Fold this sequence. Notes:
With about 100 residues, the protein is of the alpha+beta class. The chain has helices at about 20-40, 75-85; strands spanning about 5-10, 45-50, 55-60. Helix 1 packs antiparallel against helix 2. The radius of gyration is 14 Å and the shape is globular. The two termini are about 20 Å apart.
Amino acid sequence: xxxxxxxxxxxxxxxxxxxxxxxxxxxxxxxxxxxxxxxxxxxxxxxxxxxxxxxxxxxxxxxxxxxxxxxxxxxxxxxxxxxxxxxxxxxxxxxxxxx
Length: 99
């Protein structure tokens, strides 16, 4: 991210999580950060991993998200399929949120 002049802060650790969960989180982080770099104009990106009530919550936010109406690519759809195939019960959504 820094090579693209995007300041990135990462909070949380996946070290104590099951290997399958860590793998799924890796897919999600790769897809999310790719989207930040390809489809927006971010100066900042925050990635947070929390465990809340025995659920893993991964949040990726950036300040340069593209217009959600400007759809393109199939990365999120493919990710949903892979996670479903791995029997990961995850709610995935894409959208924008102001800082």
